[in-house]
Design a protein that fits this description.
Number of helices: 13
Number of strands: 6
CATH superfamily of the largest domain: Ribonuclease H-like superfamily/Ribonuclease H
Oligomer: single chain
Helix content: 55-70%
CATH topology of the largest domain: Nucleotidyltransferase, domain 5
Strand content: 5-15%
Length: 385
């Protein structure tokens, strides 16, 4: 009798099965909801088109979305590598149902040295920090090296069923992933602490769980350093977010003006009549670019330097002041996204999930704004009747 092939199950399907979530009924429920609310969806679509058909004004802002709860340090990163890799090796041993040879648990030694470094006073740091870090780096290197050998040893290991096989494969991938990050953390700690080298921010790693995290410096007194990503937002006069983008690194605000103008023209077929942003976006090149693209009122205050008489008179004009009052509305929108739409800090892991979280917050904002506009229009019609 011929042997039937094993069914192809993706890791996403396996993860849903582990959580007790059946995908087909969930998709069917979504389909039924869309079928039962066709009229409402069509009304929302028409109103969205009406609201975005001819947006004459636009305001922009940058919002730093945090990823990490606490300030990262080299010793806590090394400790994270040891405990996570050790935990994954334990899970792999359970999945293959055999004892893992050649791997020693060093979590107690790593934790003790991490805590000793944390408790050092400024004077003690000068005297003892290097020795403690050398010991912690040695423990971390030992754990990473032995974990990589375990991954090689279990290359042909199989589980008792298909789900166990999938689990073994994914665990080995996870161990490889964290070992690679561990090597980066070890190199970073050795260069910074032992060799006294100033490591560029682009080469640093701030979290092994969120390796995509960027260091953000905005010059704020209360929060000089933030760990996450800058998010560029553009909003129309109706309160609808027309563009959002999660930026790479810590770019200057002024670099976002020309791309936002191009995006607006591609989306709506023309440049906005009014372009408002804060002084961080200012440069003569950006002002000229706005005028060249057909923006009638460019409301970007000059940043630094002595203003010419013409510039000073322009910034005191009624049109400019009105545009800046309009621009201030983006700060309120950012506050709403942070407080009411879940964009203050992203709990999901990974860059892709981070971007999905930002997109979900933007979508929620736009849907609720459309609902508010529909309610306002309906009440106006009732009063007129």
């Amino acid at each position: 009798m011929p042997r039937t092939a094993k069914p192809q199950i993706s890791f996403a399907d396996w993860e849903l099965l582990q959580q007790g979530i059946l995908l087909e009924p969930l998709l069917q429920s979504i389909s039924d909801f869309l079928d039962d609310h066709k009229e409402m969806i069509e009304a929302v679509r028409r109103d969205l088109q009406r609201g975005l058909k001819n947006p004459g004004t636009g305001r922009n802002g940058l919002a730093p979305q945090q990823v990490l709860r606490s300030h990262p340090t080299d010793n806590t990163l090394l400790w994270d590598v040891v405990r996570v890799v050790t935990r994954l090796i334990g899970r792999l041993a359970e999945a293959v149902q055999q004892r893992i040879r050649g791997f020693r648990k060093r979590t107690r030694a790593a934790r003790r040295r991490m805590q000793e470094i944390q408790r050092l006073t400024p004077k003690q740091q000068y005297e003892r920090q290097t020795k403690k870090y050398r010991e912690l780096i040695g423990v971390t290197e030992e754990v990473v090296d032995s974990a990589q050998r375990v991954v090689a040893q279990t290359r042909k290991a199989r589980g008792k069923n298909l789900v166990a096989d999938l689990a073994i494969g994914e665990l080995r991938k996870e161990i490889d992933h964290y070992c690679e990050l561990g090597e980066r953390v070890i190199d970073q700690a050795r260069r910074r602490v032992l060799q006294g080298e100033q490591v560029p921010n682009t080469e640093k790693i701030y979290s092994i769980f969120e390796s995509h995290t960027d260091l953000i410096k905005r010059g704020k007194v209360q929060t000089p350093l933030e760990f996450g990503h800058k998010v560029f937002l553009a909003e129309s006069a109706q309160g609808l977010i027309t563009q959002y983008q999660v930026l790479e690194g810590n770019p200057c605000d002024e670099q976002q003006v020309e791309p936002s103008l191009e995006h607006h023209k591609e989306t709506f077929g023309h440049a906005p009549e009014l372009y408002g942003s804060d002084r961080g976006f200012f440069s003569e090149k950006n002002v000229n670019s706005c005028k060249r693209n057909g923006v009638k009122v460019v409301c970007i205050p000059q940043r630094g330097g002595k203003k010419t008489r013409v510039r000073e008179a322009y910034e005191k004009s009624l049109a400019f002041k009105k545009g800046q009052r309009f621009r201030a509305g983006i700060e309120g929108r950012i506050s709403v996204l942070f407080r009411g739409r879940g964009m203050k800090r992203c709990p999901a892991e990974g860059r892709q999930r981070f971007e999905l979280g930002v997109g979900a917050a933007v979508l929620a904002n736009n849907l609720m704004r459309i609902a508010a506009l529909l309610t306002k229009r309906s009440s106006r019609k009732r009063r007129a009747a």
